[in-house]
Amino acid sequence: MTRTQTLGSGGNGRRSALAVVAGIVLVNVVGAAPAVLSGPGSAWFQALAKPAIYPPPWLFGVVWTLLFTLMGVALALVWLSDGTGDGDGAGWSGRRLALALFAGQMVLNVAWTPAFFAAENLLAGLVVIVALWPAVLATIWAFDRVDRRAALLLVPYLAWVTFAAVLNYQFWALN
Prior knowledge:
This protein is mainly α. It is built from seven helices and no strands.
């Protein structure tokens, strides 16, 4: 069975659909969990000078939900890959590396909110997001070796992390 067939209809269609739903739910729950503990509603954050590029606050929830959803689909594609891959990183070892890198970048992603908001430390947030950027890039590279579609689904995430890093830097510089 080829990768294209993995997400197609037939006997594996139900398994594939469940994996995609599970990936989406998992990534959204893990990604949103830190926001329960702390976030932009604090008096500390409200008192900060906001950079000119700071978007409307409601946009963050919309963007992160979309990004986490794309990440969940990408994760499912890699999980379901049959190992034929397009590159030399295909097979179980390529999938294992891609999944490990994904988990590592998620740890950094989740660490940003407590570093920035809970610790009220703009520099700590900047350090975390600067570490997150190459972790996302490495994940895209590893996903591409397993399933190009999965890699492409992470490109908007890299773009947003780039923007968020610039935004975090501007918060630090202003405050």
